[in-house]
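User: My advisor asked me to double-check a structure prediction for ABC-type multidrug transport system ATPase subunit before group meeting. I don't want to rely on an old file, so could you generate it fresh from this sequence?
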Amino acid sequence: MTMVGLRKVSKRFGRREILTDVDLQVNAGELLALVGSNGSGKSTVLRLMVGLSRPTAGTVERNARVVSYVPDVFASHDRLSASSYLQHLGRIRGLSTTTARTRAHELLDRLALAGGADTPMRKLSKGNAQKVAVAQALLAPPELLVLDEPWSGLDATAHGTLRELLTETAEQGAAVAFTEHATEAVRSTATRVCELKRGRLVPVSSTPALTELVLRPGAAIDWARHPDVLEVRPADAGVTVMIPTGRHDAALLTALNHGWSVVTVRQVKPE
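Assistant: Sure, here is a fresh prediction for ABC-type multidrug transport system ATPase subunit from the sequence you gave:
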């Protein structure tokens, strides 16, 4: 199901045309990455998706009822703690106080907010404020999640956690769209990539990057039944499994927990 669709969308600011005849649909369960140089119109597309901007020409159709947005610049609240801020937003979104508090602490714990959930927002660094911005977007399960350079300022550990959160959100049926400059973040997260060039959309790839694991056996595992494994092949004294990059950590953990040895881990470029 298409959660948001742009049809023949153009956008002007004064005499400057930012977007020209953009056709773009984001479907449930999809992780779409928008790439392009600075000023190419990536943020404008995201703002059109969530309804913060209107097209000069063309139409935007939105089927998602619950829309969450993480802007590129997050204006944090000066007086509240991170936990209080998220609880307040959760209540606005219809969550009970208990549910909002529990969800806020869960997300901030996974993102490893420096100082913990009770840290005043005014004392947060840019990277930690970004963690709160991500958390507020995921308080209630969104049907459309849109993020503008969400990895910006995050530490290395939070990079992996954010990838996991976005993947989990898509697996729950949401459409996810994000912009990003870092090639690794795009390659390890996106299921589809589109590039903006001079205000026009160019498809880059519809095939996710794959990770190849060569494993030697321990306790019995039917790798063909593992939810993330796409292909299983026999290898010397073991097996080779193919998994979408970004989802291979769970398979590695399964292998290690069952006494398997990891021979090699390598990324394979899509054909």
